[in-house]
Design a protein that fits this description.
Oligomer: single chain
Order of helices and strands: HEHHEEHHH
Number of strands: 3
Radius of gyration: 15 Å
Structural class: mainly alpha
Shape: elongated
Number of helices: 6
Distance between the termini: 29 Å
Length: about 130
């Protein structure tokens, strides 16, 4: 059972929030993702069912080991793509952020590795 693109976005958001805030609640994710409480509750149930998070009603969201591994991978893909877009082909930062968020879901691991190597070797950014 693979995560959908939407689920990957939620996992990335939960991961990012956990890195800065420590504790993550569904209302925080809803605010950032700009979705309703009903939508966030449905999405979180899907993540629980797939074993990516644990979530008690009205409680915090916690990434499982499986969820954390996937979320870290998504964040890394995002960062690599954003760096490439922004520093190599000189896309404006806001556009690079938005487009990296879209591309991160479809690019292969091999392509990501090659982009990462290119950015490291030619731009001097170690991701």
């Amino acid at each position: 059972m693979n995560a959908t693109m939407s689920q990957e976005d939620y996992l990335e958001t939960i991961y990012d929030l956990s890195q800065t805030n420590g504790e993550v609640k569904s209302v925080d994710v809803a605010r950032i993702r700009k979705v309703s409480r009903a939508s966030i509750n449905k999405a979180m149930m899907g993540l629980v069912e797939k074993g990516y998070i644990t979530h008690e009603p009205y409680g915090k969201l916690v990434l499982t080991q499986k969820g954390r591994a996937l979320a870290k991978d998504i964040r890394k893909r995002h960062d690599i793509l954003k760096s490439f877009l922004e520093h190599v082909i000189k896309v404006e930062p806001d556009v690079a952020e938005e487009e990296a968020c879209k591309i991160e879901h479809i690019v292969s691991k091999d392509t990501i590795q090659k982009i990462c190597q290119y950015v490291t070797d030619n731009v001097g950014i170690n991701i």
